[in-house]
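INFO  loader      accepted 1 record
INFO  loader      residues=305
INFO  predictor   begin
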Amino acid sequence: MIVVVTPNPAVDVTYRVDEQRVGRTQRVLDVARRPGGKGVNVARVLHAAGVPSRCVLPLGGAPGAWLAAALDVPATTVALSGETRTTVTVVDDVAHPTMFGEPGPRVTAAEWDALVAAVAADAADADALVVSGSLPRDADPAGVGRLIGAATGLTVADVSGPALLAAADAGADVCKPNREELLAATGAAGEADGAADLLARGAGTVVVSRGVDGLAAHTRDAVLTVPAVPGVRGNATGAGDAATAGLVLALTRGLTLRAALGCAAAFGAAAVLRPTAGEVDHRALTGFLTDLPLELPLDPTRSPA
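INFO  predictor   done
INFO  writer      dumping tokens
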């Protein structure tokens, strides 16, 4: 079982338009709504691959009720007095998508205590805990450390800013920022220095997503790298979340760190081939995993809903 916490989930709304034009009234051609947040995407990828997984989500108001009803993965929810946020993404066939992300509700100390308790209960017998995504409005970054501390298995933190530093301070087994997040959080001039900062704080391993340049894993003894899967083009939204899913899956199956990086690259590439975050192209994924010692109970002919 892999437990995935999304501290700041969202109702993701996507508007498709003919052409994005700033300052102009535009007719929306299609509207799509789905449960969102980085952790939700990670859990959906794992669940679709046949891997037992569970979301832990703080939800509030009508948007939170809708999100809970629309989830297609097992979940534990924690009630909030504030309303779950909405994100709006505007897409067309030419320009890069434009995303508007609300900050999320303010979470009281008692509500955060309830979230930590829910995580501790679900993660008590879990193989891994993943904390993924942004924090709610005005949340204390140290709260991430409390979530990490509630786990008994492998801990993976895919967070940014002060929360990334807090995860390292709490001794997360894996911190997984992208390169830009790493430099912004640590203030380092380069990847090696930024990773060294997180390792010195207490992180076990720092896995850095490099986009088209693949991934790198920094440990106290070495730096391992794998390239991105070549020749894959499409929608990169959610590729990092899929890579997180592949990484934690491989590590909980006992694969080496290098093989786990390869698995992360494969999942990320398979996500690029799907139009929506939280999905992977199962047929392509099976091909990408051919040289890796990992078997999944997925059906490669299945297309996500």
